Amino acid sequence: MAETLTYLGIESSCDDTAAAVVRLARGRGEVLSSVVQGQTALHADFGGVVPEIAARAHAERLDLVTAEALDLAGIRLADLDGIAVTAGPGLIGGVMSGVMFARGLAAGSGLPLLPVNHLAGHALTPRLTDGLDFPYLMLLVSGGHCQFLIARAPDSFTRLGGTIDDAPGEAFDKVAKLLGLGQPGGPLVEAEAARGDPARFVFPRPLLDRPGCDMSFSGLKTAILRARDSVVAEKGGLTHQDRSDLCAGFQAAVAAVLTEKSRRALEAYVAERPAAPALAVAGGVAANSAIRANLTDLCARLGVRFTAPPLSLCTDNAAMIAWAGIEQHRIGQRPMGEITARPRWPLDDSAPAMLGSGKKGAKA
Ligand code: KG4
Ligand code: ZN
């Protein structure tokens, strides 16, 4: 009979406190519960996530979200096969809160505890939601991450490139701030862009002139700032149409960069002749319909399957951590020694270090 495994996942590496129960049965994963408590309101006055506030909020809420996740799933600790906890990368205080909590729970219950890389959690999600086979190409695009990974096995990833500065979500959020829109900026900029003319302001397409899959988004934000200031200097203020046109131009530039870099990453991946080529996206920016439409077209042209997990599993959550724990368990990984929290933890040690560390902590 196929293996049945039930794992509790715990996530606290940024500004979401999350717990979830996931079960593998008959070869398929099922999310039995997924509880996410965001902290947007706690950080709203500070223009970014304040690590100390985040860590304290995680410490106060981890037991509550875990009890809720177990309750919703109808599962007792004794029914579990193990606990998986995000052990990095991320804001170190938050990661430590989760690891300390999980260590206590594991010690008290006698359950095995597996450390999970947050990025592996995102990258393995398409196997939970769509049953993708290895190897597939993953584009992680969120407020904290932006990288292309070939996922080869639960513990084997090749990074083809990534942002050398801001993540695209950060750029959306900063542009929203420059234009007096609210936070998080992505959905608001997208709504404005839908009413705007993308051709009125043509913004740079950073790093498209260089080979490879690395990206850069911080210069774009400066270009929007300059364009905004010159409109204000000329007219004394911004009309609603100016704002929409700026958003449309910005979104078109981000979409163009992501699409062309995805084309290059797909070219490198398809050259390996995968049996069932697939591109999966994850992260909050994957919700953007212009970006999604471009990627869907690109994949259709290249004969590559395109998948995007439902948004609740695309953004930070603990079901992906529980699932990554199950995947590790299946390949025979077992707890070894004491688990420590790691602020940086690249998925691919052979790729050059990513030095960027944005408002949401380390990028790898
Ligand atoms: O994956 P996510 O929830 O979290 C972290 O990065 O931690 O991604 C959030 C990011 C934010 O920066 C938000 O502005 C962006 O995803 N985002 C979007 C859209 N919806 C969310 N960006 C562009 N278009 C959207 N529709
Ligand atoms: Zn994340």
Please explain how this structure is put together.
This protein has helices at residues 40-43, 51-73, 92-109, 118-130, 168-178, 185-193, 218-235, 240-270, 289-302, 311-314, 319-330, and strands spanning 5-11, 16-25, 28-38, 82-88, 113-117, 136-141, 146-153, 156-162, 278-282, 305-307, 357-358, 361-362. The protein is globular, with a radius of gyration of 21 Å. The protein has a 5-stranded mixed β-sheet, sandwiched between helices. A 5-stranded mixed β-sheet has the order 8-7-6-9-10, sandwiched between helices. Strands 11-12 form a two-stranded antiparallel sheet. α9 links the parallel β9 (278-282) and β10. It folds into 2 domains: 5-130 and 312-359, 2-Layer Sandwich (Nucleotidyltransferase, domain 5); 136-308, Nucleotidyltransferase, domain 5, CATH 3.30.420.40. The protein starts with a strand and ends with a strand. The protein has 11 helices and 12 strands. By secondary structure, the chain is an alpha/beta fold. α2 (51-73) runs parallel beside α3. Bound molecules: 5'-O-[(R)-(carboxyoxy)(hydroxy)phosphoryl]adenosine and zinc ion (ZN).
Rg: 21 Å
CATH architecture of the largest domain: 2-Layer Sandwich
**Stretches with pLDDT under 50, minimum 5 residues:** none
Tell me about the largest β-sheet.
5 strands, mixed
Could you report the average pLDDT, rounded to the nearest whole number?
Answer: 93
- What overall geometry do the principal axes of the alpha carbons give? globular
Count the strands? 12
**Distance between the amino and carboxyl termini:** 38 Å
Q: Per DSSP, what share of the residues sits in E-state strands of 2 or more residues? A: 15-25%
List SSEs in N-to-C order. Answer: EEEHHEHEHEEEHHHHEHEHHEE
Side by side, the strands of the main sheet go 3-2-1-4-5
CATH superfamily of the largest domain: ATPase, nucleotide binding domain
Number of domain units:
2
Helix content: 40-55%
> What is the CATH fold-level name of the largest domain?
Nucleotidyltransferase, domain 5
